[in-house]
């Protein structure tokens, strides 16, 4: 039986979770339907709600309940663990520092947008320096005797360490660099799409893709947004997409990506609704779901065969003669400056660059003043190309301006986890490809729901992956998958 | 200079106002875009936010600040007055009663929807009886030595009294009953519309109407909803509309009505944003704005002449041969059971019926068990028709199930105020009709913005109307307007 302290703690936490969902709705509203002139007032509304949430998260009663709580089973124990972890972290950071970070990152975000538009890193550097200073101060408050960077990593991937990531990423880098060189040097190159891809057609087919991957529109909806995202947990999980006139894959694969995030949230055991385990457990595990949907399933030969047929039906002839050529077009590899536009071969190299640079910044081995130069040098080394301007280099991502140090590696960790899950899935479901070739993803989504989604935050991030794949995750399956796939595609 | 107590009080209140706006956004979301399956979770989110708002409104610090506050000017004084009024009301009602009312009305609302669908008043009566009992208990806590009903009226129309309304409404009733009898007995009858009114055409023209009446979509947006409403204050004021296949006026005039509400909110001095005077001052004054837009301006001969031209351009021939016939069609008078579908002649008779019955309920002169009979008898008397079923009679409105006793009279008060404002407007702006005939409403909306909108809650409800029209408002101008308009239309 739940004891009194637990019961009071959980009731209080449930309201906090509900208010957190409200904050998410405001964010969704802002990015999809909010009137253009409402920004200033919305900022004040969100600040007021953030204040309410902050006061709840630091409410001294939580400390008293935690001291008295004795959970009656593993579900309660995990909830208490998560609440305790959050409470201890919030308590360790002085209020004034939290406020200073909020104010500075809000200003830095605007400064970054201006600097990126003007291709002016020097103008942005002092602001970034201030964000970095405050972020390090926060890391010092949190880290105890551990590494500063790991304290930040904990915000996005609890339990992960830089040592573990360095080893994983260290193994990835040389094989990815080698693979990209072989692919770019190959004679065989995929065909280009030509044709008219109407917005209405793109949106209709992207909604069909979301449903095909198991997205439940009874508990969600699809809208347009400049930068696609998914939002919300439980019974209201929304996704967004975008359309680009001659690039239908942009729309389709960002939809499938967000569908992966959304299906994770929608698949969580309803008993966990509005509890600390009622949402995805970490950024890395979340990204593993969006990535396996998008890449290993959505960009594989069987499923693209089905998509090719549907695209022909919707758009008519678009200059690609058969399903094999279409598969090659979907998986075109090309060197580029921008992480968010990168293909499977290049994507993780973008992340590794940021991971190394941000650790150098946090550990004091690199000054903000030298960041642009360091970025450009590393890019030349791994991508073989010189960065032409800051908006294509060090200024391209929003993360650092927002103080999100420690976030980037979760993208690649998600890819690594997706690689492991894909290998295990194929072992467990040998006839998966036949279903995918018919546009039926249910054997895969059922497998993921059973092993990952339904657990929500019940297990720790690495643990839920390990349980799903039957062993400790590592980068091997991802590398094997990429090398096999692109060797085949490019006739290497 | 603002003193410390005022400054702290206003800062606290500003956050409360911002959180109140967030609640409004959730309501908007629920009625327009929320996924169907999200209702249960949304209820919990809104309950959590309502709890936060309630705790803020009863925060004992407010009492301390109020005791120490010395406002420095009339704007501050009015803000303090409004905060004090709200705080005293909230403090007078026991927490347990507030909670019981919230729970009971929530259940009663569901019971009402079921009873209306089943045309079963007897099944709903016990629930309504419980709502009435708790509502009277609340009125007793609030009323002091004054009338119970006035204590409830104060929620919607601060300062109004049943004595004043009884006198006003008493003068309306016989002349409205006489007018409807003459109109319905007239030989001349307006033409019916025939034609194809596409949803896209209706929505496009309704957006044009909103803009024509001064609605600012930079700080708002228009969506579809089952029951049109307006929502939000300040920089984010949204309206909704609906379309009915063969009834374009339904769409157009509900849009103009909501535009009236929205322009009031949008026209408030920006300096009052997120303060207690940053929104419309009462339901009656609010309704006066929606009604003057919809009726005196929107359904007048000059403006309908312009609308006739636009409708011909958008929909082609729809069986109405000229602008005079169109004016008659827009203003068709017909007996009907439903308040929300009533024309200008019948509308207030619907309200008067409810006003009399709900006072009888609150004052204990009428039992819920006898309500249906009393409704039907009164309806027969004023409308000359027998009610055929409860969903067309006593079960048609949501208000009583939600505990909104005292709300109905503000609809007619709004019409009375609109009558006074219209008379003053025409006196001040003699060439108004020429502009309206061109679809230009700006002389009217400018006049209203200057005299009503911009003040927000600065003056008390009756006072802002009296200042605008240059004297105490009464029902005379509304009656004169209605009698002149419909005598002309029906050749009486």
Automatic annotation (TrEMBL), chains A, B:
Catalytic activities: Release of a C-terminal amino acid with broad specificity, except for -Pro
Record carries keyword Nucleotidyltransferase: no
Biological processes annotated in GO: proteolysis
A GO term, aspect molecular function: metal ion binding
Cofactor(s) required, per the database record: Zn(2+)
Residues of the active site: 258
Gene3D superfamilies in UniProt: 1.10.1370.30
Protein name (Swiss-Prot/TrEMBL): Metal-dependent carboxypeptidase
Species this chain originates from: Silicimonas algicola
């Amino acid at each position: 039986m739940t004891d009194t302290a637990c019961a009071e703690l959980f009731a209080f936490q449930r309201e906090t979770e509900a208010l957190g969902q409200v904050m998410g709705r405001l964010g969704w509203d802002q990015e999809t339907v909010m009137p253009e002139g409402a920004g200033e007032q919305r900022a004040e509304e969100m600040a007021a709600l953030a204040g309410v949430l902050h006061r709840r998260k630091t409410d001294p009663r939580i400390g008293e309940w935690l001291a008295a709580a004795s959970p009656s089973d593993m579900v309660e124990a995990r909830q208490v663990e998560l609440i305790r972890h959050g409470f201890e972290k919030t308590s360790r950071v002085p209020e004034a520092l939290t406020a200073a970070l909020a104010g500075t990152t809000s200003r830095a975000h605007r400064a970054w947008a201006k600097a990126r538009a003007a291709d002016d890193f020097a103008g942005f550097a002092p602001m970034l320096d201030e964000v970095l200073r405050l972020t390090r101060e926060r890391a010092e408050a949190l880290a105890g005797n551990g590494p500063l960077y790991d304290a930040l990593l904990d915000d996005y991937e609890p339990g992960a360490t830089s040592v573990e990531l360095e080893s994983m990423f260290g193994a990835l880098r040389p094989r990815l660099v080698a693979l990209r060189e072989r692919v770019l040097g190959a004679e065989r190159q995929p065909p280009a799409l030509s044709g008219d891809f109407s917005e209405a057609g793109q949106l209709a087919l992207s909604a069909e893709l979301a449903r095909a991957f198991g997205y439940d529109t009874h508990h969600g909806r699809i809208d347009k947004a400049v930068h696609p995202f998914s939002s919300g947990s439980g019974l209201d999980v929304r996704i967004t997409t975008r359309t680009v006139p001659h690039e239908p894959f942009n729309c389709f694969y960002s939809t499938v990506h967000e569908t992966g995030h959304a299906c994770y949230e929608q698949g969580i055991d309803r008993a966990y609704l509005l509890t600390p385990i009622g949402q995805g457990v970490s950024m890395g595990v979340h990204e593993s779901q969006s990535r396996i949907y998008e890449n290993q399933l959505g960009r594989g030969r069987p499923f693209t065969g089905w998509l090719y047929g549907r695209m022909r039906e919707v758009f008519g002839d678009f200059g690609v003669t058969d399903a094999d050529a279409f598969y090659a077009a979907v998986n075109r590899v090309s060197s580029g400056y921008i992480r968010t536009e990168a293909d499977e071969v290049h994507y993780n190299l973008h992340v590794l660059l940021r991971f190394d640079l941000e650790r150098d910044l946090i550990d004091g081995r690199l000054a903000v003043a030298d960041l642009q130069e360091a970025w450009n040098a590393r890019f030349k080394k791994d991508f073989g190309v010189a960065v032409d301007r800051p908006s294509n280099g060090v200024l391209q991502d929003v993360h650092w301006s927002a103080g999100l140090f420690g976030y980037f590696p979760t993208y690649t960790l998600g890819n690594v986890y997706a690689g492991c899950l894909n290998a295990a899935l194929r072992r467990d479901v040998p006839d998966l490809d036949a279903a995918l070739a018919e546009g039926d993803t249910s054997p895969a989504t059922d497998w993921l729901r059973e092993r990952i989604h339904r657990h929500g935050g019940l297990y720790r991030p690495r643990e839920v992956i390990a349980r799903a794949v039957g062993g400790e995750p590592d980068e091997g399956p991802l590398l094997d998958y990429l090398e096999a796939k692109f060797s085949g595609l490019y006739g290497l």
